[in-house]
């Protein structure tokens, strides 16, 4: 995953592009670069590290003034993060510059061919060969679009690319397969970006390029063709959110902003989807009639990372309310293990970005096997949203922090709506359905009450910030929340953390417990409360330091806890929406206290568009 920004218009491209690139930094941040044509020749500036490093090597505004430019922020796949491997890559004669997001799977074979033809390869990347290939074909007939088309026909793998050519400094060619690419249509100006967020400040009119499409943009307009040379009638969409969604406002990071947005984002996920009259929920976009939904005998949920944790909660809720068996699979495993999909199996893929390569491949695999696949995504126009047979948007707004927070609670909200919907078709009574709906309305306020304890959670973070390990425990529907809590801590604070079902601890992990091991446990008042209390007594007996997330007014947990974070009582099906909030805040504060960049943790990228 990487970020691409291109500009063509009357203004100076460089500051516009750098600003856009900064908004895409969440997609990769190990090196960056820009290619512009200030005079007659392409000039490329690159640097390893963050975009601020690139800014340092840029020449004066006058020298870097250009009406055209393409740029890239990188998340390394082939070749270490370095200046040499940063994009843009120049072709052999230096006249064509290319930025690329994706993976060229057959680059070794293509590189051999190019070397035979006399091309010198200077980087360790797969992407560089694209620049040379395009030059090779351009030299044949002098048409850059056809050259890009011919080059891409030889490529196996995925790409979002933008290309400039110094012979025509008023033209950008862009193409995609498997990596997102968007054209922004401004007033006498055009943008090419991996994500709308990079250009929303300039235009809300966008075209989402589809796989195997090539757009040629010049000052008068654009033309889109396919790799097979068919003309495409592009549809212009209006982006329905604004710049505040991609700015930090008064917060010091996107992560904390997004954590604090959850009362609203959760409400947005259920708004308009509750029917008190019928004591049920509705998910219009599923694109599947209730009569058919009722016949579903098995559900598979496929996702990665945090979205997979949301899927585990979905399993728990759907099985509890609807008694339909649910399998939850890692997309990366699912796609390669020839999954069994029976006729009445319904498949859900969950992905915040809608672009995760493994999840997308799993979707395609399930569809190839004849399954109906529904997507639960956040990103309108994303590949998963487009390729699913239906689905539901989570509507949490742009999530920029690499650690997913509000997307998780919104995914869980939508899965809860689904569980109630299916439950009401099967086993859930109208009385229970109505009770759930009424309680769902209370959830945003209950989240607020937990957020109000931010200072207290920060103080608890101080007590564990120097730990090297942490254990997260939960049971039932809160076990996936323990997994999510552990993931949050490890990805942003680099403390090793594991999530476990609390009772499973005595089958191994208990050996790790001593006075230096923080154990973060969810022990809420529900049917298994007494069981988890016994598990925590076992931790205490071994001097473990227990931080308990407990139900308001539960004094018993104080007896063995070093610290208690109280959360409001709720129906057990809604507990994850509350119990995860202290986990997110704890991870955030620990990482901050360790002096780390919570929005851009090392080695990670927001959406993993490579295998
Ligand atoms: O965009 P997706 O939901 O498909 O992303 C899946 C995972 O890559 C993502 O949830 C990842 O685990 C996050 N860094 C977790 O915070």
The average pLDDT value, as a whole number, equals 94
Number of helices: 18
Give me the CATH architecture of the largest domain, please: 4-Layer Sandwich
CATH topology of the largest domain: Glutamine Phosphoribosylpyrophosphate, subunit 1, domain 1
Which value, in Å, is the CA radius of gyration? 25 Å
What is the CATH level 1 assignment of the largest domain? Answer: Alpha Beta
Quote the distance from N terminus to C terminus. Answer: 10 Å
Please state the overall shape, judged from the principal axes of the Cα atoms.
globular
Determine the fraction of residues in helical runs and give it as a percent range. Answer: 25-40%
Q: How many structural domains in the coordinates?
A: 3
Strand content: 15-25%
Sheet of most strands: 8 strands, antiparallel
| Total beta strands | 26
Bound molecules: 5-amino-5-deoxy-1-O-phosphono-D-mannitol
- Major beta sheet, strand line-up: 3-2-4-1-10-9-11-14
At a glance:
The relative contact order is 0.09. The chain contains 18 helices and 26 strands. It is of the alpha/beta class and 611 residues long.
Topology at a glance:
Elements: E1 3-8, H1 13-23, E2 31-36, E3 43-48, H2 51-57, E4 68-74, E5 89-90, E6 96-101, H3 107-116, H4 128-141, H5 144-153, E7 159-165, E8 168-177, E9 182-185, E10 190-193, E11 205-208, E12 213-218, E13 221-226, E14 237-238, H6 254-260, H7 262-270, E15 274-275, E16 280-281, H8 290-293, E17 298-303, H9 305-322, E18 326-330, H10 331-334, E19 345-351, H11 357-368, E20 372-377, H12 383-387, E21 390-393, H13 406-425, H14 430-451, H15 454-464, E22 469-474, H16 479-493, E23 496-501, E24 518-523, H17 529-541, E25 545-551, E26 563-567, H18 575-593
Parallel strand pairs: 17-18, 17-19, 19-20, 20-21, 22-23, 22-24, 24-25, 25-26
Antiparallel strand pairs: 1-4, 1-10, 2-3, 2-4, 5-6, 6-7, 7-8, 8-12, 9-10, 9-11, 11-14, 12-13, 15-16
The chain binds 5-amino-5-deoxy-1-O-phosphono-D-mannitol.
5-amino-5-deoxy-1-O-phosphono-D-mannitol (M6R) is lined by residues 304-307, 351-353, 356, 359, 402-404, 487, 491, 604, 607-608.
